Amino acid sequence: MNSEPQLQIQALAHKDYKSAYKPVWCAGCGDFGVLNALTKALAAMELPPEQVALIAGIGCSSRLPAYTRAYGFHGVHGRALPVATGLAVSRPELAVIATGGDGDGFSIGGNHFLHACRRNVNLTYLVMDNAVYGMTKGQASPTTEADWTGSKLAPQGTHQQPFQPLEMALAAGAPFIARAFSNAPNELAHIITEAIQFPGFAFVQVLSPCITFRPEQMHWKKRVHEGFVPTADRREAFMALMDDDGFSTGIVYRAPRECYRPDTAKAVTLAEIAAGFEVVS
């Protein structure tokens, strides 16, 4: 009879995924809810922190990796997705999650967003959308309403139609598209879990209020409602988005297709690559 004590493995709680660093977000920022929902999702999936990599660009929401115990990396402004793509391709055993805001993701990073959708590498992209540049003191962002007059740089409004992230993702070929609300952490945690487990590029737009520069967004909680029903039919998904008021939540589109994986059958050394660039006189 084996009398040796048995090792008891304790399941991690969501607080165990948080680092010792305290968030510096403004009081009431929706990004607190995203951090809580993400750690709840990781705990529910029982993913060890060392098997998770969080990649961010620049902005308030891009601070999120530092507040977790997972691996984290800050790229430059708008470049989270290229870094996350390279990591996901080279280390497919990791759960790779890119995080950022509407400015970082849809303005300077807009081109990367479109190609990440069509490339379909296995990673998750969480965009905390508050329709404002919060870190640089309240300028209009790509998703800001055309008639918003709260910016000192555009006191008469931008007169530009806001970028539609879900429609653009669907048009560009993303196979998993969803929207959630930061003040509904349980629903958000469920959607994040679905996104991480999805075999391909999963995009989640998170409505995350910035009540410092857009205090009117406190009323979002009265406007947000469940509305999307997951479909694998692109036409149905487009029609749902055409009828959307911008505050429907849930998974819009879920249609798995083959992920992009590079051909690694023939390994190439750096010396061989360098030789290809040699100038022969």
Index terms:
9 helices; eight-stranded mixed β-sheet; alpha/beta; 8 strands; 281 residues
CATH architectural label: 3-Layer(aba) Sandwich
Query: Terminal Cα separation, in Å?
Result: 78 Å
The major pleated sheet works out as: 8 strands, mixed
Query: What is the CATH homologous superfamily assignment?
Result: Thiamin diphosphate (ThDP)-binding fold, Pyr/PP domains
The H-and-E topology, N to C, reads as HEEHEHHEHEHEHEHEH
Structural class category: alpha/beta
Strand arrangement within the widest β-sheet reads: 2-1-3-4-6-5-8-7
CATH class: Alpha Beta
Overall average pLDDT: 91
Strand content: 15-25%
Q: Total domains, how many?
A: 1
Poorly predicted regions: none
Give the CATH topology.
Rossmann fold
Shape: globular
Radius of gyration: 20 Å
User: How many DSSP-defined strands?
Assistant: 8
> What is the share of helical residues?
25-40%
Helices, by number, come to 9
Structure explained in plain terms:
This protein has 281 residues and is of the alpha/beta class. The chain has one domain: Thiamin diphosphate (ThDP)-binding fold, Pyr/PP domains (Rossmann fold). The chain contains nine helices and eight strands. It has an eight-stranded mixed β-sheet with strand order 2-1-3-4-6-5-8-7, sandwiched between helices.
How are the elements arranged and paired?
Layout: H1 31-45, E1 52-56, E2 71-74, H2 80-90, E3 95-101, H3 102-106, H4 110-119, E4 124-129, H5 165-172, E5 176-181, H6 185-197, E6 202-207, H7 220-223, E7 225-226, H8 234-242, E8 248-254, H9 270-275
Parallel strand pairs: 1-2, 1-3, 3-4, 4-6, 5-6, 7-8
Antiparallel strand pairs: 5-8
Helix pairs in contact: 1-6, 4-5
